[in-house]
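DATA SHEET
Item: assembly model
Revision: 1
Owner: S.N.
Input lines:
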Amino acid sequence: MYRWLLDPETDGNHQAAVDRFIALLIVANLAALVFEHVPAIYGPYKEWFHWFDIASVAIFTVEYLARFYLAPEDAEFAKQKNPRLSYVSSPFALIDLAAILPFYLAAFVSIDLRMLRALRLLRILKLFRVLIPAVKEFQALNQGRTFRQKVHALVWPGEFGGRLHDYFDTFIMVWVVVSVSAVVLESVASIHYVLNLEFIILDTIAVGVFTLEYLMRFYSVVETKGFRHPVAGRLRYAKTGNALVDLLAVLPFFLEAFLHHLFDLRFLRVFRLLRLLKLTKYTGATSTLVIVVRREWPVMAAATFIMLLLVVLTASLGYLFEHEAQPDKFENIPASIYWAVITLASVGYGDISPVTPVGRIMTIVLALLGIGIFAIPAALLSSAFSDQLRIERETLANELYAMMADGHISTDEQETIDREAKRLHLSRDEVNRLIDKARRERDLKDDHTGLTITKLVERPDIAIERYRELVGQMRQIALMVDKPTMDKLVDDPDRTTAFERRIWQSLRDDINN
Amino acid sequence: MQQDRTKLFTSVDALFLLFLLSALLGVVLIGHLAFREGLKTEAAKANAAILKDWFDQLDALSAKGQQSQLEACRDDGEKTWEGCQAALLGEQGPFKGVKNPFDPNQSVIGQKCDRADLTTRGVVVIEKGTPAPPGAPPAISFGPMESGEKLSKDLPLRIMVCDKGAYALKVAEVKL
């Protein structure tokens, strides 16, 4: 049971899922604690909050008891005289106990509700169970490295980041989602009316987190290849798309604070939704889209040109035929462009429509043309996108094939596969299928001809097979070839060396015997 | 800005940390100021809630066939909004001693929220409802209450409050 649920050393067990679930529950508890302070939310849903608290404590209690019961299996306590007692007195167990004890105490002792809520904050400490091992791993990975390199390892992906970098990314992603959700909810007047102060606090924390992230990236980017120069490197980074998005995520907050006396800058708040773009750094989908657009740009540019041509022509004709009949709607060509786009894109709002017979005939033709013309860029993008994904998957398959050349996948190779699979949105089953395919192909080519000499000398067990295969092929040649002609060619000193002639002679002798 | 690779923590790193801390303090300070402004908006909302409660009590009295204690606010079709407004702010009125949280020297009750005029921040606005012709949405459209407006029975009213940017926030819809 320990290996199945709690052992971090066992691969493929449920330990990571259990940790993730407990971490999520702690965050949910924190959110519940915040919302309990909002009477408008707490009042009508008091019961729900109560049952959620009970469910949380029940889960935390089960976790505590499971760890207590399984302590003898844990390598940390197994060597102690009394493993369970050692577990109970360990710092993590004390934190776990602090998370649930106030709830049980409240059943027997009268505790002030505010005090009880404050004690429930102790549940956050449970996150240390996940954080402390990650910090230790980070310290081990970055031993002897400078402070700036450590900052770089924390905020940028790389070999020195470890799990702490993953947690940092997750933390930023969670705040992006929370702050964007808050911006969306703020636009609902009834919610904004009730949670005005909470939104202010949330936005301040979000800006604090994003400012911290931006400055850390800006400071440590010089550790990245291509940005090494302390001034020029940082300026080049500041001009990148990701850095601009990071800056835009915090800028409205500062601008509104400093310039609100001069202008009404409330419209800037909507730009906080740009924080959603921060998530693009964590997915390969946008980079794939950029590659696709770049690759298909000449065709797309041609399609766009035709589209523009058609829009201008349609608008001009619309103006020509309809202006006299409807001078208010087809006032001029720019005004007719709106009607042209709506018609060609098959949207057809109907607020402006032709009334003259010629105008109507023209609209029929243009609407039919529009279906085809406007569909071209969409079809191009969609087919190019799937084509790019196929290319990337084939590249991964080739990489897998190369990795399988030595017959097994190393830990580093497995990490590369996992990373690529995540980027290409491949499921575990799909990756396994690709690995099986690579393995089958490797088995089919069992003659090991794909292996380089360097690989062969590293693996004598494969080298001997290859050697035997070659000797077998040579014997086959000696048996089946036209011998007098072959003898004549072998004896030619311009074609073969003395050593090769000796081998041929041995083969002939072997066959004759 | 070049780092000395022999040292694990340099003076540049210390400067960076100091800057980081200052930036965070700046965010906290701005957040604190925004929170204080938010508290003023909350206080303005509380003022509006006082008025809503007063109208609710008036409704309860009306159900019992009684009239408001404020003579000037009785819905007899003769009294005007100007008089009622003065009574609301007077000795017997619910707004006695209530101040505008954004500027105590400004009035608590105003005619409208004006984004171009920041003196309207924190003001409680009462708008008069006019029934729209049948079938035309919305059923009631609200507009500013003129000083000379006669108070008639069951006059639909909307209580609004102007926030820190002098934007109008709807508090409640009541009847006289």
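QC remark: Chain A has four domains: 1-136, 142-282, 283-444, 454-512.
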